[in-house]
Amino acid sequence: MPEFRNPNQGGGGSQDSRSFLLMMLVMLGVIFGLQYWRSAHNPQTASPDHQPAAAAPAEPGGASSPTAPAGAGAVAATPALAAAAQTSTVVENELYRITFSNRGGQVTSWILKKYKDEAGHPLDLVHDGAAALYGYPLSLYTYDAGLTNQLANALYVASETGTVEAPASLTFKYAAGDLAVTKTFTFGSDYVIRANTEVLRNGVPVRALLAWPAGLGDMETTMAYAGAQVDTNEDGKTDHLAIKKVIGGNTLSGSFDFAGTSDQYFAAVFLPSQPSDSTVVTFSHKIDVTKVKRSNITGETMSKSNKPLLLPVLGTAVGALSGHTETRIFVGPKDVSVLKSIHTADGGTLEPLLDFGFFGFIGKYLFLGLRAVHAAIAPYDTGVHNYSWGWAIVLFTLLIYIVLLPLRVQGMKSAVKMQRLQPQIDAIKAKYNNPKATDPKAAEMNAEVMALQKANGVSMLGGCIPSLIQLPLLFAFFTMMTKVVELRQAHFFWLPNLAAADPYHILPITMVITSFLAQYYTPSPGVDPQQQKMMAFMMPAFSGWMTWNYASGLALYWNIGNLVMIAQQLAMNRTSLGREMREIAAQRARRKTVPPKVLRAASPKTLQGKK
Amino acid sequence: MSGGESTARRERIAAGLLVLHKRVVSPLLHVFAPTQCKFLPTCSEYAYVAVVRHGWRRGGWMALRRLGRCRPFAEGGHDPVP
Q1: Does A362 touch chain B (CB under 8 A)?
Q2: A46-50, A117-121, A194-198, A594-598 — which is least confidently predicted?
Q3: What is the pLDDT of residue A99?
Q4: CATH assignment of A53-60+82-353, given 1.10.3720.10, 3.20.20.70, 3.40.50.300, 2.70.98.90?
Q5: Fewer CB within 10 Å: C terminus or N terminus of chain A?
Q6: Option in A438, A450, A524 nearest B34 (CB)
Q7: Which residues in chain A are closer than 8 Å to B34, comparing Cβ atoms?
Q8: Does residue A144 or residue A585 have the better pLDDT?
Q9: How far is Cα A527 from Cα A4, in angstroms, rounded to an integer?
Q10: Do B37 and A438 touch (CB under 8 A)?
Q11: Predicted-complex ipTM score
C-alpha cells in the first residue's frame, strides 16, 4: 500500500544513493533469478528420475515400433468369436471424426473438426505414440495385466465398418475360451458418446474399466504436456489433480459424477450412469518425446537435440464396481457453453471442468463479459481463427476502464488536493525536525498533518478500493487468458495466438514503456521519494517480466489499460486542477534552499517534480 | 518486553521488515493498482511502531486489526499506536 512520506525513513533504512543502487541490483537479481528459476523448472528440463511407478494398462505387441498405430503382435488364441482381419470404422458427425480399430475395439484417432493443430490440420486428440505404449482411448483396463493386454490386442468383430454417420451405434464383440467381451458405443450429434461394456469370464462379470490411458489434446509443445490434469467430481465437489499429484495405477473410490483427463483446452471425461457404483483408476507415465512421437501431427519436433526429453502423459479409466460399465464420455473443448449443456447423472453439469483459478468467480464473469463483447462485434463469427477476439479484448478493457473512471477521477482530485497541501505538510514535518516513528512526537506531527488535510477537505475515502478492484481484475484476467478455448489460436495482427506469448516481444516491450509513462504522469503526492524512484523502475520492469513469456492477451489488456490511464492523466493535467498541481510541483522542485538534513526528509524530489 | 537487548533486536528486525516492505512489497503492489492510504501513520509504520512498543504478539495483532480497519467507506484519519 502506498505510504505517506515518512520523515523517519522507516527507522533504520540507509538512504544514500549507494544503498539505493545496491537495492536496485538486488531487485534485478531477484527478477532475473526468478526468470531463470522459472525456465529451469520447466517440465522440459524436469529430471528423469521422478518416474511414478505406473501400472501400464497395456503393453501391446509391436511396442518396439511405437509409431505404428496398432501393434503388429497377434494374440495366439483360438477364438470362438473374432475377426479374421483388421478393419477400421470411422464415425462422424459435425463435430468429430472418430476412427475405431477392431483390434481391441478401441480408438486410434479422435479428430475435432472445429479445432486445428499448429499446422492448421484438424486437431487429433489422440497421442498415437503414447497410446501404442500405454493403451488407446476406449480400451479396457483390468487389474490383470495379461487380460488387459489380451483385450487390447484381440481382433473384435465390428458391427459396422467403413464410414458411419452419427447418430449411430457400433458394437465390438469378442469371445475366446471362457472369455466373452461386448463393447457398444452410441453416437449422437454432440460431443458425448455412450458406452456400454461388459467382460464376462465363465459368465461372471470381470471388473473392466473403460480407459483413456495416455495423453490428450494439443501435445505439440512442452507447455501443452505440462497442462495435463486429472479432473474428478465427487458428490458435486470438483478436484483438479496436477501432474505431480496423479499416481499411476491408483484406484480412487467414491461416488463420481465425472472423472477424466484434460489439458489446457480439451477434455476426455467419463460420466458414469451410476455414480455410486463408479470406480476410477488414474495413469501417469513419462514419455521421451524424442523417441515416442506422434505420427498425426505435422508440426516441427519439439527437441532438436538427441537428449531425452521426458514429458508426462496422464490418463484415467472409469468403470463400475459391478463389472458392467455404463458411462457417457465427453470428448471435446472446455468451452463454457458446451460444458454447461452436458449434465451428469446427478443433475450437475461439466462446467466445473473449466477452472479459472483462485479468482475464479471473477474470472468467470470477466470471461462472460468478454464473450458478450465478442458476440456484439462478431455475431456470426464463432470461429477462433480471426481477429475478433483481439478486438474484443481491446473493447472490453476500454469498457472496464470507463466503468472505473469515476473512481479514478475521485482519486486524481484528492491527489491534486494533497499536492496543494504538500508545502504546508513539508513545513509541519520540518517543524518537528524528523522524529523517529516510535517517538511520541511523531504521533503529534501526524495528528497535525491529518488536521491540516481535514481542514482542507482532502478525503482519503477511496483508500484501497482501487486496488481492491484492479488487483483481482488483473489476476482474473491472468488466469482466464490461458484457460478459455475461445482464445486458443486467436490471431491478432502480428500475434499468432492470444493465449501464447508474443513471439516478437512487442507487447511486453511496449508494456515497459507504457507502464513507465503511466506512472510518470500519475502524481503520487506524499509518497516517499525513495519509494517513488523504486516504483519508477520496478513497475515497468515487473510488468514487462510478467508478460514476457505469458499469454499475449494479458499484455494486450494491460497495455490498453496503461494507455487509457495515460490518456486520462493527460486530460486531467489540462484541467485547472491539473495545471495548478503542476505549478506546485514545479515550485517545489525549484525550492532548494532547505537545510540538507531536512531536505532529505522533506525534499519534493518526486518524478512529477522533475517535469 | 524483557530486557533491553531483546527489545533492541526486535526493533532492528521490525525496522528491517519495514524497509523491505517499503522498498519491495509496496512498489510491487503499486504495479497493479495505484492507491492511497486513508490512515496516518500508514499500516506498515503502524505495525512497526506497534511491534516496537508492544512486542511481536500484541503488536502484530494490533497491526492486523489496523489492516482490518482499512476498508471501503471507513473514515480514515489520524490513528496512532496506543
Answers
A1: no
A2: A46-50
A3: 94
A4: 2.70.98.90
A5: C
A6: A524
A7: 2, 411, 466-467, 519, 522, 524
A8: A144
A9: 5
A10: no
A11: 0.79
